[in-house]
UniProtKB/TrEMBL annotation:
GO molecular function, one term: oxidoreductase activity
Keywords of the record: Oxidoreductase
Domain of life: Bacteria
Family from the record: Belongs to the short-chain dehydrogenases/reductases (SDR) family.
Protein name: Short-chain dehydrogenase
């Protein structure tokens, strides 16, 4: 898809969490291509975040890097404040930051369960609350998109904690849509399927082959596929859509399960 066919988001400001990571970078690139000013949030991936900021600026866009550990309420609020300080407002939050370790349920330590619940669900809650507070202060209006996963609706081996946490993200999305709707703030989720990353074919040939067989569109997703869905949900094209989960999985969810 060419950037010319994206909705026009010029004049809007988007904060993308975890944008030093793979999918977050793709999401931030699509918002920048749509004309939005982008706050590129990172926790430890400072260099990739700063490279992305430089790339967006070199292409004529507006971007700034914003650090925070989103498990901490004060830092989550700080990321939103830094976005407003850089660009004067915040219109869009994409809750992309998350953690996805793999561990079989019988061997799963309680600490890892907690880490994955906090690292996916609590970070989404804290950033959403912080961004919505600024949107309301400004008189309301805005859009929040949370990256869940098809595993929030369908379990996967080694991901009991992750599936439960993404299910929590999906319900948080609906609850937030319910409570923030009267302020004109729309809250939706995007549930990606398996997304390409460097080396995935080499590291997990069996998983990739199974995915290709199960996907009607026969390919893995790209970070840009996920970003396009986020841009759509954040744009005026989705002005009457809130509390929904947009599945972006090449059709895997349409595959018979038995
Ligand atoms: N990859 C897939 O196939 C897939 C499929 C479905 C859904 N997803 C979801 O898509 C999102 C992005 O995944 P990805 O594959 O791009 O993973 P990734 O490359 O590991 O990126 C995730 C980013 O989240 C950030 N993060 C984690 N914990 C954080 C915290 N406490 N505070 C602030 N930032 C934190 C990390 O930031 P730093 O690196 O700066 O520390 C990391 O860059 C996740 O929510 C994931 O669950 C991925």
């Amino acid at each position: 898809m060419s950037s010319g066919s994206l909705p026009d988001l010029s004049g809007t400001v988007a904060l993308v969490t975890g944008a030093g990571g793979m999918i977050g970078a793709g999401i931030a690139r699509r918002f920048a291509a749509a004309g939005a000013a982008v706050a590129v949030h990172y926790r430890t991936s400072r260099e990739p975040a700063e490279r992305l900021v430089a790339e967006v600026r070199a292409a004529g866009g507006r971007a700034t890097a914003v650090p925070a550990d989103l498990r901490d309420a004060e830092q989550a609020d700080g990321a939103v404040r830094a976005t407003v300080a850089a660009f004067g407002r915040i219109d869009v939050l994409v809750n992309n930051a998350g953690v996805q370790p793999v561990r079989a349920l019988p061997e799963m330590p309680p600490e890892q369960w907690q880490e994955v619940m906090t690292g996916n669900a609590a970070v989404t809650f804290l950033a959403t609350r912080a961004a919505a507070a600024r949107m309301i202060e400004r008189g309301g209006g805005g859009s929040i998109v949370s990256i869940a996963s098809i595993e929030g609706s369908q379990p996967a081996f080694g991901h009991a904690h992750y599936s439960a946490a993404k299910a929590a993200v999906l319900m948080h999305t609906r609850a937030a849509a319910l409570e923030y709707g009267r302020y004109g703030i729309r809250v939706n989720a995007v549930s990606p399927g398996l997304v390409e990353r460097d080396g995935i074919e080499r590291d997990w040939p069996d998983g990739v082959a199974r995915w290709r067989r199960a996907a009607p569109l026969t390919r893995l997703g790209t970070p840009e596929d996920v970003g396009n869905a986020c841009v759509f949900l954040a744009s005026p094209l989705a002005s009457w859509i809130t509390g929904q989960n947009l599945v972006v999985d090449g059709g895997v969810s349409a595959h018979p399960t038995w």
